[in-house]
Structure formats: C-alpha cells, structure tokens
Amino acid sequence: NFYTATVYEKGAQVIGMMETLIGKAGFRKGMDLYFERHDGQAVTCEDFFAAMRDASGGAASPLTPQFLRWYEQAGTPHVAASGSYDAAAQTYTLTLKQSCAPSPGQPVKQPYLIPVSVGLVGPEGADLPLLNEDGKYVTTRVLKLTEPDQTFVFEGIDVKPVPSLLRSFSAPVVLSFDYTDEELTHLMAYDSDAFNRWEAGQRLAGKLILDATKTISAG
C-alpha cells in the first residue's frame, strides 16, 4: 500500500519543511544538486536529504540528521505552545513542548526537528519586527524546535502581541494554544499569513458552535 494519500501528503509536507528550513534559494540549489547526482537512478529519501543538506551548508545546514526522524518515526507530533508578555522588559516569551504518542514498535519517540514559523501581530494589526538569527529584522521568524521543551524570547517588543504560530502550516503537527475569542478575532482580521487567518476563523467558529451547544443543552 505504498501509493496512498498518506504517503504522498506526508511526503510533500516533509519536503515543504525542508524548504522552510533552508529557504527557497537553498531548496533550488538542493534540487539542482539532487538531479546532478541522481538523474536516472533509483534513490532513497536519505539521498534526497543529503543533496538538500550539502547544498545548504553541509554540517552548518539547518537540516541536521535529527530531521530524518520524520522518515523513521510513525505518528503525528503534538506541539503545545504558551506565551507571556513582559511590558517592563519589552519581551515576549514563547514556550513550545513537543510530544508524540507511542506506536507499535516505537514505544518511545525521539524529539523531531520541527520548524515553527512565528509572527507577532500588534494591537493595530501590523506584524511586529523580529530579530532573526542572522541579525536582520523580519516579520516571520522560523524557530527550530529540537527538544521536548524549549523557550524562545523575542526582545524589543514594545506592545503586547498576539502570536501567529505555525505560519503557512510550517510543520504537519497538531498545535494547541489557549487563544481567547478576542485574540482569534484579531488574527482573523489582521494576520498577514493567509493560512493563519483561515485557521483563526476555523478555531473561533468551532469554539462558538461548541459554546452554543453547551448553552442549548443547559436550557
């Protein structure tokens, strides 16, 4: 049953994560190197990964061997996120925790390398500038979640933001964050990421429907 929707969809999402981690230019270099090395051959996922990694810096590439766990482990990772804003320090702290349920033959799962694309939406609806790892300001920063529990601190945040998490569905994970109705409404109205605007609307609609159902059930 190799040719199934699951194989194709997960395979596409894993390749999409590679592009998120190394960027579009790095991904194009990786594709060129892949065809240069393997055109006309029967190859493996590891061969494709090696071409992408070598073309994007080799040992210095964001694609570390840990990424191969996406091919080696079954199941869908869950990422629980929580955030807090410190007005005095002008920092926003985001904590991410990853887990994956045991499966037959894999009672213990090792942490994945999960790219989590994050933006912070200000009260006026604009993306706040975020300092990237290379010292440049961006509106979307790709966090690399590699441990079961990691904390990321964004500095120079002078207003309380609403986090826009997993932009463009940067990883095929189940994400949980305790958004309020007001925060979801804010993202639905202003988020610059089309996927997260849609996702905020879905989450808010589902929450309102369930709340209305409880109200009806209670009379």
Sketch the topology as an H/E string, one letter per element: HHHEEEEEEEEEHH
Shape: globular
Strand arrangement, largest sheet?
A: 7-2-1-9
Q: What is the SS-derived class?
A: alpha+beta
Number of helices: 5
Description of the structure:
By secondary structure, this protein is an alpha+beta fold. Helix 1 (5-38) packs across helix 2 and helix 4 packs antiparallel against helix 5 (194-217). The model has no long low-confidence stretch (mean pLDDT 95). The strands form three sheets. Strands 7-2-1-9 form a four-stranded mixed sheet, with no helix packed on it. The protein is built from five helices and nine strands. It has helices spanning 5-38, 45-55, 69-72, 181-190, 194-217; strands at 78-86, 91-99, 114-121, 130-131, 137-138, 141-145, 149-155, 162-165, 174-176.
Helices, strands, pairings?
Layout: H1 5-38, H2 45-55, H3 69-72, E1 78-86, E2 91-99, E3 114-121, E4 130-131, E5 137-138, E6 141-145, E7 149-155, E8 162-165, E9 174-176, H4 181-190, H5 194-217
Parallel strand pairs: 1-9
Antiparallel strand pairs: 1-2, 2-7, 3-6, 3-8, 4-5
